[in-house]
Amino acid sequence: MRLQLAFVLAVAAVAASARVPPPRGPQREPLIKKTYKDQDHLDVMGHMRASKSAKNRNAVEGLGYWNQQMQAELQDQLAKSPIVKQAKNIIFFLGDGTSISTLTAARLLKGHLTGNDEHEVMAYEKFPYSSLIKTYSADKIVTDSAASATAYLTGAKGNQATIGVDANVLLSDCDAMNNPSYHTPSVLKNFQDAGKSTGIVTVTRVTHASPAGNYAHTAERHWENDDDINDVEGDPEKCDDIAEQLVYGATGSQIKVILGGGRKKFTPKGVDDPEGGDGGKRDDGKNLIQTWIDQKQVLGNASYVWHREDLLALDTANTDYLMGLFDWSHMSFAIDEDTSNPSLEEMTRAAIEVLQRDDNGFFLFVEGGNIDKAHHLNEHRSALQEALEFEKAIALADSMTDPEETLIIVTADHSQPLVINGYPERGTDVRDLGDFSDVDGLPFTTLMYTNGPGYRGEPHGERPDPSAENYYDPHYMGAATVPMIESHHAGEEVILYARGPHAHLFTGIHENAYIPHALRYAACVGDGLHFCPTEA
Ligand SMILES: *[C@@H]1O[C@H](CO)[C@@H](O)[C@H](O)[C@H]1NC(C)=O
Ligand SMILES: [Zn+2]
């Protein structure tokens, strides 16, 4: 009944609006030239805002509108030309768990907040080149962040939960992990070997899987400190934990900028945390933060900070080495507004300012790591907030660097099971309810997960056991979160955006392991083909 009524109303609305002259003309520029930041107060919690009528909008966006818009889009496409130069700098933006559905939803949310709605354009969408990226690992169709980091940072696929080692190293195999012939060198290391500066920025622990892909070689992503190895009766004397590899390792110890969370992996048990957390977690009594300070102070101007205000007050023009560990563990979700934490954008600014001092060039890895963390909790509002923070950092890096010399890529390590589904009206908030079930008549949210803690089972919480079903049946119906006679559409894919020298190497579809090979070519570092024909 409800649907029929809605249909009648929709037809009436279209008929009525067809006679109304278009209230807004075609435009390339946003109607409201405010950033979404200016409007954050409007509805960060996503309450339904008085939206423009979708039907009215359809009338506005007639043939004339689309002709003009799409001709302009065609002109933009025709104007693209590759920048065939050596990439002096590379900034690698990694949105952890940032599926295409996440990017789409983030765009819809930002557009909702700016008033541009579906016409919003994200900073990375202005990049001229993009490519699809295949993410399977050496042993799994669906990868984790560790194996993916090995591939997209070093150029070879590894096994699930291993980092910086090739597929010869099985999970937790300490002996194999210590075999240097299985170690996969990262592009970050290639930059170091070429005498350039390097940095890592994340909102997770700096020893977490994605950032660790830049500097660690380990058979187990969870071996972030020695206590993690002792817990599984491993030998931390034999197999160095990731924090130790960051501070003492051949690659880790040369990183000039390290910003993120994870103090507990660096400090010993019994040492209090400055923000009152659970204190240090190391068994070996080492304070690796102090070690880092001692090491770097003799090399140049070195700063360790753990509070946003200290980062913002930093004299980056005179900083050679910078470590900032802003949380005991992962940094807080942006949606929780922890004032002791800098934003990803603020950390990215500090990192670029320090690294740009090197005339030889730099490699910077920036991870929007909490997008994935929020998705794991099925908290899509938080995930989208993180995705908007990620975009701000990308926009900043874009504005701070010259496309003639800095290659910026933006990609994800793997998808998350988030779908944008149902038929929500144009101009509505993607975080809201958007459509109705045609079985029970109940509404459902536009954003949903196919798995995770958000599952709502039958009233008594019992989920039918699929192994008791004939899942080989050609007409077997896969489990769904909402009962529907026929599904309403959903979409999914994984993408890489690129701008700068040799960004055009990223078109079509590629393996995640291809990425470092293309980066090395563009920057003329490491092994393999180089753009620069001969080097001394
Ligand atoms: C270190 O910082 C001081 C100012 O705090 C500055 O005078 C000096 O030049 C810096 N050294 C280097 C090597 O940048
Ligand atoms: Zn994850």
Automatic annotation (TrEMBL):
GO terms for cellular component: plasma membrane; side of membrane. PROSITE patterns: ALKALINE_PHOSPHATASE. GO terms for molecular function: alkaline phosphatase activity; metal ion binding. Its cofactor is Zn(2+); Mg(2+). It is an enzyme of class 3 (hydrolase). Residues 1-18 form the signal peptide. Pfam families: Alk_phosphatase (PF00245). It is a lipid-anchor; GPI-anchor. Mg(2+) binds at residues 96, 208, 210, 367. Zn(2+) binds at residues 96, 372, 376, 413-414, 489. Its EC number is 3.1.3.1. It catalyses: a phosphate monoester + H2O = an alcohol + phosphate. Residues 266-285 are annotated as: Disordered. Binds 2 Zn(2+) ions. Binds 1 Mg(2+) ion. Belongs to the alkaline phosphatase family. PANTHER family: ALKALINE PHOSPHATASE, ALKALINE PHOSPHATASE-RELATED. This is Alkaline phosphatase. It comes from Penaeus vannamei.
